[in-house]
Amino acid sequence: MKAIAEALGRGLKVPVVSIKPEEAEAHFGWLAHFIGHDLTSSSAITRPKLNWTPTGLGLIADLDGMDYTQASVE
């Protein structure tokens, strides 16, 4: 989660700061429940079942390569 937040912060040119666990719900709302857990994932089972071979960038490299000039906050 930290790496994702840092990549978004770099792209949007905004500071990224840590918050205390007890502040998470006030900041993230319902998403805080998921943000507070180490929810690792893998495509190891999906790849052979679907005969899928992922190509392209990983998540952080993809976020770093995005064009954030079109981003808007509403």
Determine Rg (CA atoms, Å).
16 Å
Strand fraction: under 5%
Order of helices and strands: HHHHH
Number of helices: 5
Largest sheet: none
Shape: flat
End-to-end span in angstroms?
A: 23 Å
Determine the mean pLDDT: 89
- Find the structural class using helix and strand composition: mainly alpha
Low-pLDDT segments: none
| DSSP, total strands | 0
Helix content: 40-55%
Distinctive features:
single chain, 74 residues, mainly alpha, 42% helix
Please provide a brief summary of the model.
The chain has helices at residues 2-12, 24-28, 32-35, 46-50, 59-64. With 74 residues, it is mainly alpha-helical. The mean pLDDT is 89.
Can you characterise this structure?
By secondary structure, the protein is mainly α. It contains five helices and no strands. The protein has helices at 2-12, 24-28, 32-35, 46-50, 59-64. The chain is flat and about 40 Å long. It starts with a helix and ends in a 10-residue tail after the last helix.
Task: Describe the SSE topology.
Layout: H1 2-12, H2 24-28, H3 32-35, H4 46-50, H5 59-64
